[in-house]
Design goal:
With 168 residues, this protein is an alpha+beta fold. The chain has four helices and seven strands. It is globular, with a radius of gyration of 16 Å. The relative contact order is 0.20.
């Protein structure tokens, strides 16, 4: 058994993986292998350069390119935490309440992408090139951050996508 402290440091892959499976209840895959709560921290510790993923069943993921995403994050977090991943490949991935991504579906095509449901997956830290900007757990208590509805971010997203349009 690997012991972890709370909150897990952003360099503590096994601790983060245990938080994903235990605290958040997310199903976790390491590379292509589904890993349960009992094994997740151990498997991540053994395979340090693995790809860790989950499905978007407990949340919707809103992917925004880096420059407008940076604007969205700074502006949106003035009203409360928005769990957010930073990836080398797609910029920022904001986690919002499950099923609410459809309320901003009209913004898809302007540089924004929405992932939702059991068929959609996102990469999680400690995957190389992926890190938490704002993790989905509180640092002062062992509990998850309450996810905001995607519609709550609409104005900020529209403003950012207008200020920093996608180049194509």
């Amino acid at each position: 058994m690997i012991s972890t402290t709370w909150p897990p440091s952003l360099r503590d892959g096994p601790g983060m993986a245990h938080a994903y499976a235990g605290l958040l209840g997310w199903p976790i895959w390491v590379d292509s292998e589904r890993v349960g709560l009992e094994q997740v921290a151990h498997v991540v510790a053994e395979r340090q350069s693995s790809v860790v993923t989950t499905v978007c069943s407990e949340f919707d993921a809103v992917q925004v390119p880096y420059i407008p995403g940076r604007h969205v994050l700074v502006t949106a977090e003035r009203k409360g935490a928005v769990p957010c991943l930073r990836t080398e490949r797609c910029g920022f991935t904001l986690l919002v309440a499950s099923g609410t991504g459809r309320s901003i579906a009209d913004l898809v095509g302007s540089g924004l992408e929405i992932l939702s449901g059991d068929e959609a997956r996102i990469e999680l830290p400690p995957t190389p090139g992926v890190r938490w900007d704002t993790p989905p757990w509180r640092i002062d208590a062992t509990q998850a951050v309450e996810l905001r509805a995607a519609g709550d971010l609409r104005k900020v997203l529209v403003d950012a996508l207008h200020l920093y349009p996608a180049r194509g």
